[in-house]
Amino acid sequence: MSAVVIFLIVCTVLMVQANPLKPIDGDIVGGRSIDWSKVKIGYLVPSDLDDYLREIGIELKFTPPTSEQKSGKTPYQVGIALTKSSKTKWCSGVLISDKFVVTAAHCLNGVDKGAIFLGVSNIQSQSEVVTFVSNENFIIHEDWNSEDMLNDIALIKLPIVVKFTEKIQPVRFPSQITGVETLRGSAVVTGWSQCSSSVEATFGLLQRAELQIVSKQICQEASDVNIHKENICTQAQSNYQGDTGEPLLVYENELPKLLGLYSYGQREGCLLGGLAVFTDVTLYIDWISAKTGVY
After folding, report:
1. Which of 39, 75, 148, 149 is the most exposed place for a label (fewest CB within 10 A)?
2. So which residues are the signal peptide here (predicted)?
3. Residue 9: which region, alpha, beta or left (left: phi > 0; alpha: psi -120 to 50)?
4. Are 14 and 199 in contact (CB under 8 A)?
5. How far is it, in rounded angstroms, from Cα 235 to Cα 143?
6. By percentage, how much of the chain surpasses pLDDT 70?
7. 185 and 269 both lie in a single domain
């Protein structure tokens, strides 16, 4: 057993002992409460990506993830608790209008029903709005391919019209995109991370981390999985591993703009500064507009 595996096991045991998670009371999903200690982060790791990007030679500065729990700081962030075959998993999404949330297609694949949390930074505390959805509310991209993670994008049509508040606001897209490859800088990701070297870490607290955008060529050379033009590749600059569907953001005039959605990443990325692959949402604006009437 490798030292990394042993370290992960020890950290997991310590985290559970230090932070026993209590169920949220009430009818959340499928007529039952959610025991957060049993909820799995909805991330997907292709089996042949475990060892990629070990030796690509990118020098990174360690930047610890920071808490985003202050009310209203990430009003676009949506938590999604989903049930499939009586099991619950957690994904992120992004509010794009008063009726629609965008997320990763693989999060919704085969799902029966779910709960949408709006205006919440700590999923174990009170949410501003909770609404319930079934697979009839899901719009998965017609060309979504689970084998190579192509077109990993989907929409959720909410059964309510969301009232915008300080804590609940839709995100916008960048005003000008000349190509993600030209950015070559840092972007920001926000989500509910369960991966930390600290025994004080608790699943459920919204986190923020910086990611370095890297070229698709680097990704492709390090992996047997096809990296598509619809992908954005990033290198983690911290011990951060998030939940799929969470937003990759850039800032224009100090305002967050949606660039991508987390699709998959390296299993050990939280420790090694591994690669994360996002769906480039800016390439799907026409699809989103056709399905929602937004933009």
Report:
1. 148
2. 1-18
3. alpha
4. yes
5. 27
6. 60
7. yes
Q: Are 273 and 222 in contact (CB under 8 A)?
A: no
Q: What pLDDT band is residue 197 in, cutting at 50, 70 and 90?
A: very low
Pick from 227, 94, 232, 202: nearest CA to 150 = 227
Could you tell me the pTM of the whole model? 0.74
Q: Which of 237, 268, 273, 275 is nearest to 4 (CA)?
A: 268
Same domain, 159 and 257: no
- Give residue 140's pLDDT: 98
Query: Residue 168's pLDDT is what?
Result: 94
Chain segment 16-64, per-residue pLDDT in tens: 333 332 333 333 343 345 554 555 544 333 333 333 333 333 333 333 3
